[in-house]
Each structure stands twice: as structure tokens, then as C-alpha cells.
Amino acid sequence: MSATYTLRSKRRRAALRALAFMSPWLIGFGVFFAYPLISTVYFSFTHYNGIDPPTFTGFKNWSYVFNDYPLFWPALRNTLWLVLVMVTCRVAFGLGIGLLITKIKTGTGLFRTFFYLPYLAPPVAATMAFAFLLNPGTGPVNSILEKIGISGPGWFTDPSWSKPALTLLAVWGIGDLMVIFMAALLDVPREQYEAAELDGASSLQRFRFVTLPNISPIVMFAVVTGIIQTMQYYTQPLVAGKVASGVIGGSGQQFEPGFPDKSTLTLPQLVYTLGFQTFNYGASCVVALVLFVLAMAFTALLMRRRGGLIQAGE
Amino acid sequence: MAQQVIDTPRVTEQTDTPAARVARRKAALQWVAVHALGIAAALFFVLPFVFVVLTSLMSDQQTLTRDLIPSHWEWSNYRQVWNTPGFLGWWRNTLVYAGLGTVLTVVSSLPVAYALAKFRFRGRNLSMMLVISMMMLPPQVIIIPMYLFWAKQLDLSGTLWPLIIPMAFGDAFSIFLLRQFLLTIPNEYLDAAKVDGCSELRTLLKVIVPMAKPGIAAVALFQFFYAWNDYFGPQIYTSENPGAWTLSYGLDSFKGAHHTDWNLTMAMTVLVMAPVILVFFFAQKAFVEGVTLTGVKG
């Protein structure tokens, strides 16, 4: 009797202690996650412009966004394009650079620094730099292309080249993936390579049958986190579009998002445009929830009970 | 001398077989190929920086040509950018946002990460799952209610407080990263501290904090850079008040105001990038360690 009593009070004390240590985050979770998320769901069913009190309108915003808002489907298509091409390029290139750096024997530290630095460049600054490098008239890239007899594309000013240009910018910043892949590659047991070599495996076969199986969880991790990052892709397409369209003037200038011809529009930009430029908070919340569902679906993939890539428990 | 004579035949015997020669040649070729590829890749990563710096030193006339190298080095571009009205304020704001935000994040996230890594309690797994979900959530998902909360209810729009205050309540990514790090600290140290009669708080401060310094450094750096690089947050909360702009947001509007002046825009771009790169050279190890931790299984 008294044993169970002390056990219970011990457990309660442990729970209270955990609660105390967790309290900053518990408050944060409620105020900065749960409450706004519920509000977003609520606002998505109301007409709300931030001035008049919200009025309930059922699925009107949802039907507006899906059927009548001309920017939604282009933005979703662009986001899927970016997920497919940009994530693939980033992972492939990141793995390639990771492999390369493990093979380089001279000046490794210097090479690693070179490959890593662009990842740190502030997105606005990096985009500004690329908008300049790739500007069709006087940019260095097209100047150099011209010298070797190629007439370069319009990059950020051409709807069919703007997303490849963004992909180039994203590939430039793969320093984080390089580090992750490098760590994974160095963890592959040496004996497996030696065994494969004894069996007469070529270097390509060794990569296919030893390296890839060993690092596949990390590749998957890079793919899924890449997809989630692309769901949040905001600053680069916005700044690139702004610079390329030549918007002059300070913050007050209204910018037609997605320049050129909606080609750089992403879902996060729609949340901003609908909410903070047209003050249609209800419709903005609908797009926000679409984003939420997509991001959480991929997060679930990261955390599946078995075979998940991030484990919550031990 | 005599020894060399004796040694020589043995060495040549080992390395001069045809197979060994082929292997040696193959290794040398591979060395050359790998380094050539490395240099080509390095150029791709470094040349953008080089061209940006070169352009920042051109005259505005020359930026309209296809020249790659400045004919006359215009160092005054930097002075001109530095003297942009409000520029020093953007620096101050960025340092306040990044500095204060980093301190608050570390102080509030560490105890949470400690509890998630080392305490056993019901709901621990659930909490961890929620932390990861928060980490993966695009900030745009909840921005409308958050904006209304800060702007309409607390009347704090036009200031940096809506960006800084939430950092006092734990940051999901920092909690995740710190917890990954704390898992690598053996429990024996904590048990020993408990045997010595340390309270949990004392254990955290006297045992964990000194041992977790590399993890704390990584989180601090990431948070600092997050704030330094943040564009969306300042755009939402400070766009109406240029006095509260940060460098990342200010750079964007600077380009707007100096439409054709690529030299000045690139000089400003260099000034916004420079601190990040400078800090990296001093804290390379902590950074790389932090990135690695995000990629490993917890």
C-alpha cells in the first residue's frame, strides 16, 4: 500500500519535473502553434479582411481558391515542378560533391570550405547576386557564354528559364547536403569495400552495391527534408521576380508575384499575396492549410513508426 | 650507403611488376581526375562571389558593359552604400534581432531538450513528435493569425518584437538539435551528479552545459544565421517602418531604389554576406558538427 503510494508520488514528481523543464516550449506550442493553427482553420471558413469582424461563409473561400483564383493552380504546379527537379538536382549534386570530397586527398579543407560557403549566403543576397550574374544583358554568365559562341537565355526574365535559374541557385547552396553525405559516406564500413574488391567488383558496382545501400537512409532523409523545404520556398522566387521585373521604389510598391508570367509563383507567396496585398485573409488561410497538409504528409513520412528517418523515441 | 644497396633490389622487386605499374598509373590518373573535377566544382561555387565583388568595385557606367573586371577600382562605392540613410539602423536592428533572439533561444530550448533527451515521462514521444512537426511547418501556415495577434491585439507591428519574443519560448529546430546532441552524453555523468546530491537544474547547469558546449555553439550559430538571413519575418512585421528593417529586408528595398546601379547593389550584397562568412571562418567546426547532427538518426 505504502509502496504503491510512494511509487505514484514519485511518478507524479517526475512528471511535474518534466513539465517544469518543458514549460517554455509548452507555452510556445500553445501560443505559437496550436492557437494560430486552429485560428487558420477557423478563418478559412469566414470572410475576413482584418477590419470588419469575420463572418462565417462555409466553403466559399475553398471554392474560390480552387475554382476561381487564377494563381492557385499555377503556384501548385510550380511548387510540384520545383519539388521534382530542384530536389532531385540538389540531392544528386550534393551526393556527387560529397563523394568527390571524400576522394580528394590534397587541400581537402580548402575545397570543403569552398563547397560549403554558398550555403551560408543570406538568401536575399544570394538571389540578388544570381539575378545579377544571370541578367541577360550585361551579366557575367551570358558574357562568358557569348565568348564561347553561345547566346545565353533570358534566365529570370524568361518564363521557361526562370525555374531552371532558381534550380541553379539552389544547387549552388548544397553545402549542408555535402556535409551530411560526407559524414554518411565516411561511416560506410571499410570491410565491405574490401570484400567487394576481392570479389572483383568495379568501382561502379561498389558504389551500387556497397555505398548506396549503406547511405540510402540519408538519401531518403535529404529527399524528404528537401521536399519540405521546397514547400516553404519563398524568398528566392520573390526576390528574383522583383529584381528581374525591375520594380522600382521602396516597400510600398505592389509587386505582381510570379514574374515572369507566374512562372516563379509558389504557394507560400500566395499566402502573402492573398493575405497582405489583397487582405483576403480567409482565402489566404485556405492556401496556408493546403501547405500544412502537404508539409505534414511528408513530415509523417520522416517519422513513421518503423523505418522512419527521424525517430522521436530512443 | 651499404644499406641502400641492399634495400634497393627488394623495393624494385615489389613495385616494378607490370600489375603494380598499372595500378600506380591508375592511381595517379585518378588523383588528377578527382582534383580536376574538384577544381571545376570549386570554380562553380566560388566564381559567383568573385564576380559579385568585382562588380561592386566598378563604376556605374562600366556595369552597363560586358566587362568582367573593373577598369578602375571604385572603392568609394562601399562608402556610398555605407552612407545610405538608415543603413546603420539596419545593422543595429539585425544585430538586436539575431543577438537577442539567439540568447533567448538557447536559454529557453536547452531545458526542453534536456527533458526530452534524459527524462522518462509519459508523453515524451508525443512531445518529440510535435517538436518535429513544428520544425517542419512552413512559417506561412500560421502567419495570418500570428500577424493579427501581434499587430491588432498587441499593437507591435513595425517593431522587431513579434520576431524576438517567440524565441523566449523554445525553438523547435534548436530543441531537436540540442536533444540529438544531449543523447550522445552518457547517462553515467548524470547519475554521478545525482549521487552527489545535485538537483536536476544544478545538473543541467553544472554538468550538461559544460559538456554540451559544442551543441550549444551549433544551435547559437544556426539561430544567429536564421535571424540574419530571415526575410519573411521582417517583411511581415516591419515593412511599414523602415526604422525597424533588418539588412536582409533592407537589401531588397535598396535594389528597388537603385534599379540600374548594379555596382552599388553588389557592394551592399557583399556587406550583407560578409559577416556571415567571417563568423563561419571562426566557427567552422561547430557549424559542420551541427549540420551533421541534423542528418543522423535520433
Please characterize this protein's 3D structure:
The complex is a heterodimer of chains A (314) and B (298). Chain A has 314 residues and is an all-alpha fold. Chain A has helices at residues 2-43, 60-68, 72-103, 108-120, 123-133, 140-147, 162-172, 175-186, 190-198, 203-231, 235-245, 267-277, 281-303; strands at 46-47, 55-56. Chain A has a two-stranded antiparallel ribbon with strand order 1-2. The mean pLDDT of chain A is 90. Chain B has helices at residues 2-15, 18-56, 76-82, 87-118, 124-136, 143-153, 161-164, 172-183, 187-195, 200-211, 213-229, 232-238, 247-257, 262-282, 284-295. Residues 1-11 of chain B have low confidence and may be disordered. In chain B, helix 4 packs antiparallel against helix 11 and helix 11 packs across helix 15. At the A-B interface, helix 1, helix 3, helix 4, helix 5 and helix 6 of A face helix 2, helix 4, helix 5, helix 6 and helix 11 of B.
Furnish the topology, listing elements before pairings.
The complex is a heterodimer of chains A (314) and B (298).
Chain A: H1 2-43, E1 46-47, E2 55-56, H2 60-68, H3 72-103, H4 108-120, H5 123-133, H6 140-147, H7 162-172, H8 175-186, H9 190-198, H10 203-231, H11 235-245, H12 267-277, H13 281-303
Antiparallel strand pairs in A: 1-2
Helix pairs in contact in A: 2-13, 3-7, 3-8, 3-10, 4-8, 5-11, 8-10, 10-13, 12-13
Chain B: H1 2-15, H2 18-56, H3 76-82, H4 87-118, H5 124-136, H6 143-153, H7 161-164, H8 172-183, H9 187-195, H10 200-211, H11 213-229, H12 232-238, H13 247-257, H14 262-282, H15 284-295
Features:
heterodimer; A: 314 residues; mainly alpha; two-stranded antiparallel sheet; 70% helix; B: 298 residues; 15 helices; flat
Number of strands of chain B: 0
Structural class call of chain A reads: mainly alpha
Count of discrete alpha- or pi-helical segments spanning 4 or more residues of chain A: 13
Percent strand of chain A: under 5%
**Largest binding interface between chains:** A-B, 103 and 102 residues
Distance between the termini of chain A: 33 Å
- Looking at the structure, what is the overall shape of chain B? flat
| Shape category of chain A | flat
Biggest sheet: strand arrangement of chain A: 1-2
Share of β-strand residues of chain B? under 5%
- Helix proportion range of chain A: over 70%
User: What's the assembly state of these chains?
Assistant: heterodimer
**Gyration radius of chain B, to the nearest Å?**
27 Å
Question: Averaging pLDDT over every residue of chain A, what do you get?
Answer: 90
Helix-residue proportion of chain B: over 70%
Number of strands of chain A: 2
N- and C-termini, Cα separation of chain B: 60 Å
Order of helices and strands of chain A: HEEHHHHHHHHHHHH
Protein structure class of chain B: mainly alpha
Return residue spans of chain A where pLDDT drops below 50 for at least 5 consecutive residues: none
Number of helices of chain B: 15
